[in-house]
Structure formats: C-alpha cells, structure tokens
Amino acid sequence: MLNRLIASLALAAASLVAAVTPAAAATVTFEDLGIQSWFATPTYDRYASQGVVFSSTTTYQTYDHWFSNSGAGNYSLGSAGWGNISGTFTTAVNSLSLWVGDEGYDLDRATLNVYDSSNHLLASASGSGTSWFTLSVLTTANIARFEILQQGAVAIDNLTFSKVSTGGNNANTGNNVPEPGTLALAGLAMVGAALVRRRGRQG
C-alpha cells in the first residue's frame, strides 16, 4: 500500500515538473487568405491576434499555389514586387521556422534574420531551392522582430514560432525558473522513486 502511494506521488510530481511553463507553438498557415485574387492585399496586422504583425510599409499579396506538391497548403503570403518581408512579434518568442519559396522552379535564395528588442542580431539562417525550403532559428534570448531577405521571387508559408511563458516574476526573460513548490515536488518524486526501488530490492 505504501509502495503504491509513494509511486503515485512520484508520478504526479514528475508530471507537474514536466508541465512547468511549457512553450506554446503558434503556426500561421495563411490558408485563411482564401481564393482572393493574385493582387489581393492582406493587411499587415491580419495575424496580430496570433502574435505576429507584418511591416506596415510593405504591400502584401496572396500567393496561390497552383502546382504545389510541397505540403505548404493552397495559399501563402508574398510582397508586392517580391520585396523583403519583415515583422514583429506581439509576444515573447524564442524560435521561428517558416517555408520560403514558390513554384517557379528557378533557384531562389533567402536569409532569415531575427533581432531582439534592441535591434541586435540574434540568429540567422540561409537556404535555397527550386521550390519550397525551410528556414529555422532557435535562440536563448527573446526574438522581437524578423526579416526575410530574398534573392528571387519568393513567398512565405507555415510560419511557426514558440511563445515563451510570460507568467510570474520570470515574464519575458525566456528563462523559466520553477517555483519553490515545484522544486519540492521534484525532490519528492526522486525520493519516492528511490524508496520504491529500494523496497523492490528488499522484497
């Protein structure tokens, strides 16, 4: 009976520890752009509620995937004149990944740069392809804004970013420190596991 109780406590504590301030991922697929015309202009703050706002100095257009087999969906976001695309996050973010490309089957190149709130470059990723390719960055500091510098006419799709937990005194730090109570539970989990192991050997 005691063994069962200790094991249950250990499992509960371990689950709580694993659940401490998880990073929530958000993905903007641009599928909501629907069957707008090629020259439709989605507004820069269309995805503000999801945590990202695009530069208001850029005119955007819907890119329709007529021949795509990439898994990038039916619609993407492009800029009029195929210029660079940039944006800011409305929440603390420490990773960013997105599809870049088109279906022109010419060789396109692009670079993803991410910056903190002081405009310091945190990370950079470059890639190229004749269809769609992925650019991804992961940082220990919070990403405030990003830019996609392109060489070739490319759109972006499946923009995925992790939202850092902003609860308690650790808000916006990107370093999620467990509460004292959680640390105590972690200790209980280890003690419980050790006791169960010891009783198993004695039995």
From TrEMBL:
Residues 177-199 form the Ice-binding protein C-terminal domain. InterPro entries: Ice-binding_C (IPR013424). It holds the Pfam family PEP-CTERM. It comes from the Bacteria. This is Ice-binding protein C-terminal domain-containing protein. It comes from Roseateles depolymerans.
